[in-house]
Amino acid sequence: xxxxxxxxxxxxxxxxxxxxxxxxxxxxxxxxxxxxxxxxxxxxxxxxxxxxxxxxxxxxxxxxxxxxxxxxxxxxxxxxxxxxxxxxxxxxxxxxxxxxxxxxxxxxxxxxxxxxxxxxxxxxx
Length: 125
Prior knowledge:
With 125 residues, this protein is α+β, with helices and mostly antiparallel strands. It has helices at 16-26, 72-81, and strands at 10-13, 31-35, 38-42, 48-53, 63-68, 90-91, 94-97, 100-103, 106-112, 118-124. The strands form 2 sheets. Strands 5-10-9-8-7-6 form a 6-stranded mixed β-sheet. The model has no long low-confidence stretch (mean pLDDT 95).
């Protein structure tokens, strides 16, 4: 049954080489395997993400995936030091301060990759 099966996020990219540099050099992911023209990256606790070539890359206005972290402020600082730029939002329900929003039981920060995909890091409170 699906409730017992792992789910794997897909990240569509227009330019695999450019996106690899971002995910490997700035985000710090290590490639596990090249597959079907894309790359599988292993993340924490046995999870993984598949980055693949797609003409639809960056077209979603919503977050594609998020990493659950213990300390969002520390992660934001580390990623900023590597050159990742965080989104700033000021709208009903979401206001970021130094890239981090607090609300709904979490602290969350969003950034875009080189392809325009929106990704997040989030810490449950």
